[in-house]
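Let's practice the habit of predicting before peeking. Look at the sequence and jot down your guess about where helices and strands might fall. Then scroll down.
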Amino acid sequence: MALITVITPCYNQAFFLPDALRSLQEQTFQNWECIVVNDGSTDDTERVALEWSEKDSRIKYFSKQNGGLSSTRNFGLRKASGKYIQFLDADDALHEKKFQSAISLLENDDALDLVITDFVESEEKLENTYSSWCKLSDKKISYESILLEWDSQFSIPIHCALFRSTILQGLGFNEKLKAKEDWLLWLEIFKRNAQCSLIAKPYANYRHHAQAMTRNHDHMYENVYEAYKYVAENEKLGPLIYPFFHKVNAYWMKHLTKHMRDDRYRLRNEIAGSIKKVKKIFRSLVLK
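Done guessing? Here is the structure:
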């Protein structure tokens, strides 16, 4: 029976970790291992993870110095031994049928590289769910759509996917970024012409809470700029360069407008500065 390796990074989320692990134990497909990686937490992450690993040998605990989400996921990838890879952050959860539904497709079609399901969103209590802002099963997911439509038309929480391990071989998360690192990985995956199947069932739960990195505007804007800069300078965009910079400019203008009446002048100035820097990068690339 095929093995699924679940990679669960955890930084100061001991409170949420049991929900993630419980959602694994409730899977109808039971042949999985979970690699819990403690990224230098200062809370009870180690105690909680060890309690669960002592009760369930499929849960394997590792600890490392703090290095950020990308380095923690990459650490887990290096430890993985499964035919399939599932990412599951400590504050998220999966529906009990996620593994079974995805495995049945992957095991019956060797050409498939990954299966993506729809998702729901929730606040701190997982049971208080609501519809996601986008329906992935309605999208045509490709390199171009991920490049140009990400965050405006859709985004794919990483735990929506079950990956065949071979499609991730030689890939990893960009450790220089603290946000949008998943977007860059999705680009790399679909640059390989990944074959994907979509399941129109919300089998992943994306949780919002006060500690989430996406709630930190300063953190997000700084890393969004770095991610856009990385793509502009490293991807061979060709004719996509113009629609890409239109997308980038639209993003910054949207958020600049959003903060026009914000008291945080520094944040507005930072966004305005990002717009100027993006235009400078665009001009330099067009003139090459």
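How did you do? The two ends are 52 Å apart (CA to CA).
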